[in-house]
């Protein structure tokens, strides 16, 4: 059981919001990892994935190093050996354990990593009221950093469980209301022209989200929703994975070399397609958005559907219009209970750098003569 | 805590010895694994190694399949899914999990595997008094099979801990009396001629240990003890790993390609050579036999020492003369407490197929003119 | 000796220009290959390169297949077995020889490939006056296609000779007037805004060069000439290849993994840097443009120089202003004698898809406040 | 045309035989290479093979280095750069070109290598009458060394031609009398016991052929002839390559991984099995010995036939009884014309170290009770 971080320690008016935010983020990580055993949290299923325990400790190392060590007088490291183990790629912070051997670290145990988290959380909440503005900015950065790792954590643990022939379920079946079948795709036209993209305003943003700059869009139309599993199954049934003409040359070579016939984690059973998820193997939900498809697959689907993928800038222009409520995809991950009295706005961003993780949206190039 | 198998269940006079033997072997496996966490017992450090949990379950699967399933009416499998997970390479027993993915099986947990062992042990001890001669032979085979896996288990877990930058110790420091420095190597002459090799008598033997047959030995002399760590350090100090002339061509290529400079797990510290073992990293014991050297290293050492490695048949002839008490090397593995009242004669045989595991013994070819 | 193609066969006014063009292109290929032996023209130095003989035959196969076979009644293939050998990647044209085994084809010999060329050239020049407009378009395409292969041919043969420890020179030393040291780089400002890019007009263009479309440029300045070998040597001397901070992460990983310390074909001698070229190994010319650097190297250089690489569209905008005479880089390749009475305008385009072949140009992003 | 070496230069009685032998060996190499073009002799088809030109130059380098350079005062190297190119693996002779890049050496050309041979041959024949005994021994060694490379040369050039989709024939069809179908295999019994193996007498032998020593044979019977292509085809037809039970585990893994279905160079055509050879692709000769099978295939065949492969010592004992005329297999290689007036006894030994090159002979272990 994760011991909830107590936000009431941070009482100074100007930092109380930050303390709440910090506590919520830290608790969510514990909640996501709660169903895992020591072994579940230790094993690394491939070089591109990290063990849950590593995600839990690395995010803690971030706060310990850049806030406590650098900004809190007298702070003593919880364990002198941890920085070597839990630094990721910050070259300036010295040597670190090879990424593809993270799964060898059976010790410290999961409980010891939880103790590491508790130690750092307590020190952070003690320190927060007195932190400088610079240090507060680092706390905010660390919260976003940990949210990124939450996305990786659920992605990586899914991959690990998928490698177990028993296909264990991390969570019981979702008690969600069934998704209603959406209406056919509609097309949202954009007249093209110069648009502004990139972060603006005073809120937090990662380095790579700015600076805000102009981009030129061609006139186009973009789908008003994502592609469903049901539509993808129709693509498969229509020879989507067996006809070279839909695919980029490199994509087709990948399909042939790897024997790809469906999205990752899909399998064909007697009663149709199933997919493996954190709630185990279940029939695909034809109304839900397709997930775990690669760029090549998304591109081939778009080609089959008579469209193309949107450019980065077309996508940003479209996404910006969805507003604050449009992007919450955490409920896809599983039945996480938010900490009592808390609230969390965790938006699962696209997992960059992970194969086969993007959700395609369709874009149609229209031939706009004089009249459009 | 391993629950000791109760040998008192097997009361029939003709099988009581076998029941004791079975109980002792089964308990030793639990004792060897006792210091391990769930994560320790789950991780696979390389394709050539298996997780401890797998060794524990696979040896259990052997008894469940070939004794209980095949010879005990009404026996129900403990878990229908386990044969797929824990079969190793018995082609006739159907599909099995890929060897290099054994480390993905975080579930069943170590406790569940212990429960599997307890279930099968109880059924075995119930069944033993009534087993046919054929089935009893399979029990004896299974005990030897499990002893082989005990050797692999300690070898594999050592490799796994060695991959953790923290180099955790599985056992506290051995409380052994220090090994006395042995006398200089003496040479035991053999006049050559036809000798008999291979298993004989009524005792147990593996298939590959027979049939007994004749072999022709040249006159030779073989060292009367194994090479020590201290002698090996002298070899290193004398350029053993830096001069091509001691090495076979393939061995030299291996040394250059892999950057080999000492036996596996050795490191040079400020106070001299250390080695990593199940009791952590410690100074090498100059009086103890060298371990974790490959065939190529052993061959190079022998060449440096003005000798050569013995042939398989020279070794067998020499080993046969050591008698029943000569070969117990289990005490090298660590401070295992034998189950109360039990006794075990576990001889750690050479781990065939594992890189860098042989203990070299020296053989000198003498040029025997008329007088020898 | 290559037998020059006789353009006088194509006498019809409307096709005489195309015949001259065809003859000039075909003769240049022979001239480029003239110094090569049968073995030189056969060997393939890596999977990404093709033998000269293959380039010579493949370009011939193009005309034979798409013009003579498809548009000239009664044409008989020169050799029924050649299409399998000399098709490159036209899926619709059937099976073909594996790309990385092209160097196994010692037969047909270089002379036999020259005979193949002569046969097809004669048939082409006979046919040209009567070709339909569509077929004439294919002839023009084939000429451009062959010019692309001329670039590959000299690039590939250079690589092949560089793999010979004797480093043979294909051509004698260039009798060029020494290049004058250029003036320091000047910066050509561009105010940004929407520009048009892509092919326009009636002239020939490859598929990927259109359609013409708008692109948005930021205000920037681009260097008015390419980087010289002398400037690159200064980059090396200043730690260019030893400091991670100039490099993209993937680039730095490549530098470390491959031991990259200078542009391809450069070596440090007692008297300074030398480079290998088709005229053998010679001192670098500090005034000449640097060549054989990869994207990663170009990017690191630009970073070191306080600039960045131009975008594709910035480059296109800049290159468009150079006019018709600016781009001829054929003289870099060596002292080719144009066939008597002929003329050729062969422009060596950048060799896309070849590692380490781009010529970097610098672009500087200016922070344009109100005044620019 | 190779210019025949003139043995008449070596007139001193005590060396005239050696001069004849030298000339015959050198001429045979030229004769074997006579049908090859410059390109044929230059290309290297895999890392385990060497170009013909390399074989021709390396064997020449051997005489130039160890005889002329070391034993003939005033001899000047033909080309100072050749030792680097044509040394194979004599570590003491300094750096050498990487083995797997030998095919990059288009220059020197085949004609230049022939000139190198002619230069060294002339110097050798001049020097031979005055050579010391030690130097004469090196000449004899060099002749045997060159005969080994003749075997490699024909093996390697066959592989190279086999990689050309046109499958060119090096030689016209053999004008041999058809091989008569041999009688069924008979079995030659050996009563076992101690036999002597290894070189004896004053004749030449390679290092690895001695010293002569005793070996113990079990009673056995060995086939009185090699296995024929017809018998091998029966093995294939009976599921030889599709049933795991005939194969060693590593062999079966190789069959599955590589898709092996027949001996190397065999293909199934409409009229049955064909094989590729230096005389092109032809129907297999059912009466001729099977060739180009690996150890694994030979072992599987023997298992299928109810026998096993002979041990090295059983084979040596059997081969020794064949006498001087039994082993000439050069006629398998093709229609080589011996130099006029010469004679050659070239025996093609088994090409050790080459995949799939051994000729299996069958050995049957008999259970010899009292009566045998």
Residues in helix, % of chain A = 25-40%
Q: Provide the domain count of chain A.
A: 2
> For this entry, what is the oligomeric state of its chains?
homotetramer
Mean pLDDT of chain A: 81
Low-pLDDT stretches of chain A are 1-12, 323-372
Gap between N and C termini of chain A, in Å?
Answer: 60 Å
* Largest sheet entry of chain A: 3 strands, antiparallel
Supply Rg of chain A: 23 Å
How many β-strand stretches of chain A?
8
Strand content of chain A: 5-15%
What is the H/E order of chain A?
HHHHHEEEEHHEEEHHE
Largest interface summary: A-B, 28 and 28 residues
Shape descriptor of chain A: globular
> What structural category do the secondary elements of chain A indicate?
alpha+beta
What's the tally of helices of chain A? 9
Sheet with the most strands: spatial strand order of chain A: 1-4-8
């Amino acid at each position: 059981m994760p011991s909830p971080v107590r936000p009431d320690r941070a009482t100074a008016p100007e930092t109380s919001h930050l303390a709440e935010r910090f506590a919520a983020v830290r608790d969510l990580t514990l909640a996501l990892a709660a169903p895992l055993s020591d072994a579940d949290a230790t094993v690394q299923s491939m070089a591109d994935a990290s063990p849950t325990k590593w995600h839990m400790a690395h995010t803690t190392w971030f706060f310990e190093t850049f806030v406590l060590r650098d900004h809190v007088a007298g702070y003593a490291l919880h364990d002198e050996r941890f920085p070597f183990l839990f630094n990721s790629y910050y070259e300036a912070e010295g040597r670190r354990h090879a990424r593809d051997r993270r799964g060898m670290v059976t010790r410290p145990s999961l409980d010891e990593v939880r103790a590491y988290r508790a130690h750092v959380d307590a020190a952070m909440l003690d320190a927060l009221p007195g932190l400088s503005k610079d240090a507060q900015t680092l706390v905010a950065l660390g919260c976003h950093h940990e949210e990124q790792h939450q996305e990786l954590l659920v992605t990586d643990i899914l991959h690990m469980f998928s490698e177990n022939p028993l296909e264990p379920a991390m969570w019981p079946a979702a008690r969600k209301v069934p998704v209603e079948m959406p209406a056919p795709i509609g097309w949202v036209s954009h007249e093209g022209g110069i648009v502004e993209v990139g972060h603006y305003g005073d809120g937090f943003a990662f380095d790579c989200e700015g600076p805000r700059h102009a981009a030129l869009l061609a006139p186009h139309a973009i789908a008003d929703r994502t592609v469903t599993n049901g539509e993808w199954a129709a693509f498969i049934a229509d020879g989507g994975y067996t006809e070279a003409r839909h695919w980029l040359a490199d994509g087709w070579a990948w399909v042939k070399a790897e024997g790809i016939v469906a999205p990752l984690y899909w399998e064909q059973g007697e009663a149709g397609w199933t997919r493996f998820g954190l709630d185990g193997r279940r029939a695909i939900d034809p109304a839900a958005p397709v997930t775990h498809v690669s760029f090549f697959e998304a591109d081939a689907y778009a080609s089959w559907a008579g469209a193309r993928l949107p450019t980065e800038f077309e996508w940003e222009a479209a996404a910006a219009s969805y507003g604050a409520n449009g992007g919450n995809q955490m409920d896809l991950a599983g039945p996480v209970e938010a900490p009592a009295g808390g609230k969390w706005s965790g938006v699962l961003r696209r997992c960059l750098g992970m194969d086969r993780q993007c959700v395609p949206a369709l874009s149609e190039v229209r031939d706009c003569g004089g009249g459009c």
